[in-house]
Specification:
Elements lengths: L1 E2 L9 E14 L4 E8 L5 E8 L6 E8 L5 E8 L3 E9 L5 E8 L8 E6 L5 E8 L4 E8 L5 E7 L6 E6 L5 E9 L2 E12 L5 E9 L5 E8 L4 E8 L4 E9 L5 E8 L7 E8 L6 E8 L6 E8 L5 E9 L2 E9 L5 E7 L6 E8 L3 E7 L6 E6 L9 E3 L3 E4 L3 E3 L3 E5 L3 E3 L4 E4 L3 E14 L7 E3 L6 E5 L10 E6 L4 E2 L5 E4 L3 E5 L6 E9 L2 E9 L1
């Protein structure tokens, strides 16, 4: 999940309740929810696509929902005949970058597309990066200088992953592609995630030339280079990557499936934790059923204390089950659940909501709408929730580190015309209930300006925190404390002023402690 708020109140209070539910969003055609961005009112902007009436047409959609996932509005964004949104990223200025693809058909080259929108879905600009007809933007990561790093997959043909750096208006600043010396036919991007410091982790499918096996790769990138690259081998016939998540300790976790045969054989799910600094394996677990039935992990979320929540699919004698598991920081299972009662259930993504609940997205049948399930921290929803049984095994792991090849690219930048059309989604509430929680209340966040800053930055606290004892700490992007004797800090009853004249350009994190609580936030020094 990507947060639109840059600041969070950290002290919880007890005695609150929250609503749990299972509901279905339907439309005359198939809906796919791809990504979420949280809003200041605790609602969400959701992006994805709707399959239209013919195989060669689809709609890119954005909807705004409240905290109970009740749809406030929904729109389709139409540039050509096949439009799709894959990711939505909150920006420092309070707006959003939405990435995806536009393509008229499989014989024309229209490529990936990027919109900048506000929280009401109105468009500032739309850009098309034309290189190949099945290019798709999988992730957008904002850098400390307010430029955007676009991670692009070239789909079916296996060409190298592509990295574009663009400015705040979408204009191309730099571009390169990634391939290796022992991978055939290229590095096929499947997933990408950015962290709060502008780094990007990508992963996907490779056909390793040394082993002849399909494996998954992971890499850490910046704007111009690959910092590390690994191809992971479980000693099995093949393995796939389905999701990446950045954990609270800065490391990453990945999930997918591992197979003893080819890519169509029965698989088991896996969960693996990776060092963000090197790509080395910290631990790797196989998640399987004793009866030998299929399982795969599709989505991940970081939870409290470096725990991890996984969601996906498992089959049984009654059909396919939508499953979720929670793991501790060593990968051991804390709980395991399945949801719904459909004949073909599976969950594709999971969000951590303020360390108080989890929101799952998926399906309960091949023909039904997109399900949204909100559970408590124990995985329990208000209905149709059952315990599940998995077996956990350690995986034998090794990895390859082939040489990386970076090539220049030549994308064409276009500004396509588009239209925005309201659509009506139907909402089917399956069940609803309440549970007591320790909930972090939403309060107004500190206001920081200017951001980006030059020689001075001001922090204004919410009104209830004025005239209280205040202490301030500032860290650089590597979380190294900048000692207070190197800071010029002026504090009065309304503002905290930091003299940033001697700060190097980049991203900084601050913490403000008052009698009312602890606030954190970010600012950029130009």
């Amino acid at each position: 999940m990507k947060y639109a708020l840059l600041f969070l109140l950290l002290f919880p209070i007890a005695g609150s309740t929250q609503v749990l539910f299972q509901k279905e969003l339907t439309y005359p055609y198939h809906i796919n929810i791809e990504d979420f961005a949280i809003l200041p009112d605790k609602g969400y902007l959701i992006c994805g696509g709707i399959q239209a009436s013919t195989p060669d047409s689809s709609y890119a959609i954005i909807m705004r929902v409240d905290s109970l996932m009740q749809v406030q509005w929904s729109r389709k964004y139409v540039a050509l005949a096949r439009d799709y949104f894959k990711c939505i990223t909150p920006l420092y200025d309070g707006n959003f970058a939405v990435g995806g693809a536009i393509k008229q058909n499989f014989s024309n080259f229209y490529g990936s597309t990027l919109y900048k929108i506000d929280e009401n879905g109105d468009v500032f600009w739309c850009k098309n990066y034309a290189k190949n007809f099945d290019d798709v933007i999988y992730e957008v990561v904002e850098q400390s200088d307010n430029t955007l790093l676009l991670i692009i997959r070239h789909g079916v043909s296996g060409q190298p992953s592509k990295i574009l750096k663009v400015d705040g208006s979408g204009a191309i600043l730099s571009q390169y592609s990634i391939s290796t010396t022992n991978t055939l036919p290229g590095v096929v991007l499947d997933h990408a995630k950015g962290n709060s410091f502008g780094d990007v982790f990508i992963g996907g499918l490779v056909l390793n030339n040394a082993t002849g096996k399909y494996m998954f790769f992971l890499a850490k990138l910046n704007t111009s280079d690959v910092l590390w690259y690994r191809e992971y081998d479980f000693g099995r016939a093949s393995s796939l990557l389905n999701d990446i998540v950045v954990l609270d300790d800065g490391n990453i976790a990945v999930t997918g499936s591992v197979r003893d045969g080819n890519l169509t054989d029965i698989s088991n799910a896996y969960l693996m934790k990776i060092s963000q600094g090197s790509g080395d394996i910290i631990w790797a677990r196989e998640i399987k059923q004793e009866n030998g039935f299929y399982a795969a992990g599709f989505g991940l979320a970081a939870a409290e204390n470096n725990n991890i929540v996984l969601c996906g699919i498992a089959n049984s004698e009654e059909g396919y089950k939508a499953i979720a598991t929670k793991h501790d920081e060593s990968g051991q299972i804390i709980w395991e659940k399945n949801y719904g009662e459909g004949d073909y259930g599976y969950l594709t993504s999971v969000l951590n909501i303020d360390n108080n609940a989890f929101l799952f997205s998926g399906f309960m049948s091949l023909s039904g709408g997109n399900y949204l399930i909100k559970s408590d921290l124990n995985g329990s929803s208000s209905c149709l929730t059952n315990n599940f049984d998995f077996v956990l095994n350690d995986l034998n792991t090794s990895y390859y580190t082939p040489d990386i090849i970076l090539n220049d690219l030549e994308f064409d930048l276009l500004s396509p015309s588009f239209s925005i059309v309201p659509i009506n989604l139907d909402e089917n509430l399956i069940c609803e209930g309440t549970v007591n929680i320790n909930k972090k209340p939403f309060t107004p966040s500190p206001i920081i300006y200017p951001n980006p800053a030059s020689d001075m930055v001001s922090i204004q606290l919410p009104a209830e925190n004025l005239n209280t004892e205040v202490s301030v700490a500032v860290f650089n992007s590597q979380l190294k404390l900048i000692h207070t004797d190197n800071l010029s800090i002026e504090i009065n009853d309304k503002l905290i002023k930091l003299n940033t004249e001697n700060f190097k350009p980049g991203l900084y994190i601050f913490e403000v402690k008052t009698e009312k609580g602890l606030f954190s936030g970010k600012f950029v020094k130009k």
